[in-house]
Specification:
The chain is α/β, with parallel strands linked by helices. The chain contains 16 helices and ten strands. The strands form two sheets. Strands 7-6-5-8-9-10 form a six-stranded mixed beta sheet. The two termini are 41 Å apart.
Length: 371
């Protein structure tokens, strides 16, 4: 059965189920008149909604369809299969009740206002598949309003990529602090990875996007690109992929461009390279192309049909478990702590295994305990 037949058969992937059996015997408690006691209690203090309702375990997955896998900027309805899939993983991996909400607007202001309006029903919000820099602006606004929000494309990617980096360098016996990192992509994922690498003190980092290498005071950059330019590319080099990857020990691909890397690019890297080709559904390069240049390398993708899957699903169920249970927002220090905890689950990293798989039962407790 292919994906189209599967989704057509089940008419989507999620549904709502009651937590208890309901009958004539308990209807007076579940509904009227007993429920009035609960409404009075919550009216006294809205925080009581976390005690007496499902709000304590409810998460909303918010998207506008502008960065949908497979189609890019599209209508919000086309994002629903992705958001439903995310909701399933929230439930089976984190026991979080997540609701996919695909919004019929592309306005940052309206998205922020929608989240504000919805907040009384949810414990936290997951911002998902919204184009940059709009997604960053939305996150900044929501954080100012003290609404518990997690941007999985940015923060989730950063956590899992850092966990993979820590173990990849152990497996390849390289010194992370002395190595050059080439980061391809400065959208939501790329910016998130840049921020976490900056947080752990990485100095030799270059970032490039559709306009080439990002450098200090590059004309036309937004404030997030300017932040990247102020910290990375210390030699202020100009150029594109060739100039960025030359002498790199690690390539991190978050471009969405299938086949971006060629054999000749791999030959420009340092010996025993680490290649994170993370774009989905088709990565920047496949192993057969790398094999033409070197046999000793570590390869990771975002796919589940290759070794070393680097996917947000490793982190976000446990992250939301911690956010909801502790009512605590996530910051860069916490991102790093979680990444290190995930990496430590693999005692002897190798070229074929640098991260636990998505269904590793240790992940939920390990990540939630970081909060």
């Amino acid at each position: 059965m292919d994906a189209l037949d599967f989704h057509k058969k089940y008419r989507g992937k999620v549904k709502i189920m009651p937590k208890m059996d309901v009958s004539q015997k308990n209807l007076h408690i579940v509904y009227t008149p007993g429920v009035a006691q609960v409404t009075k209690k919550i009216a006294e203090n809205p925080q009581n909604s976390f005690i007496y309702t499902s709000r304590c375990n409810n998460a909303a997955i918010i998207t506008d369809g502008t960065r949908t896998i497979g189609v890019g900027n599209t209508i919000p309805e086309a994002s629903m299969p992705v958001m439903e899939g995310k909701a399933i993983l929230f439930k089976i991996l984190g026991n979080v009740d997540a609701y996919p909400l695909c919004l019929g607007t592309k306005s940052a202001k309206e998205i922020v206002r929608t989240v504000e309006i919805l907040e009384p029903s949810f414990g936290a919000f997951n911002i998902e598949d919204i184009e940059s820099p709009k997604c960053f602006e939305i996150m900044e606004e929501l954080e100012q309003k003290k609404i518990l929000t997690f941007h999985d494309d940015q923060q989730g990617t950063a956590i899992v990529v850092l966990a993979g980096i820590l173990n990849a360098f152990k497996a390849m016996k390289k010194d992370l602090k002395k190595s050059k990192i080439c980061l391809a992509g400065a959208g939501a994922a790329g910016y998130g990875v840049f921020k976490i690498l900056k947080e752990i003190g990485i100095k030799n980092l270059v970032v490039f996007d559709n306009n080439g290498l990002i450098y200090k005071n590059r004309e036309g950059d937004n404030k997030y690109q300017r932040e990247i330019g102020d910290f990375s590319n210390r030699e202020n080099k100009r150029g594109g992929l060739k100039e960025a990857i030359e002498g790199a020990d690690l390539f991190i691909g978050l471009t969405g461009k299938a086949g971006l890397l060629k054999t000749e690019h791999i030959s420009l890297m340092n010996k025993n390279p680490i290649i994170f080709a993370l774009s989905n559904p088709v990565p920047e390069i496949f192993p057969e192309e790398i094999n033409k240049t070197t046999k000793n390398y570590l390869y990771a993708t975002g796919r589940s049909d290759f070794p070393n899957q680097i996917n947000n699903a490793i982190a976000f169920p446990g992250v939301f478990r911690g956010i909801l249970d502790k009512r605590r927002k996530i910051d860069l220090k916490l991102e790093v702590k979680i990444a290190k905890a995930i990496a430590n689950l693999i005692k002897n990293p190798s070229k074929k295994r640098i991260l636990p798989d998505v269904f590793d039962k240790r992940l939920l407790k390990t990540i939630a305990n970081c909060f």
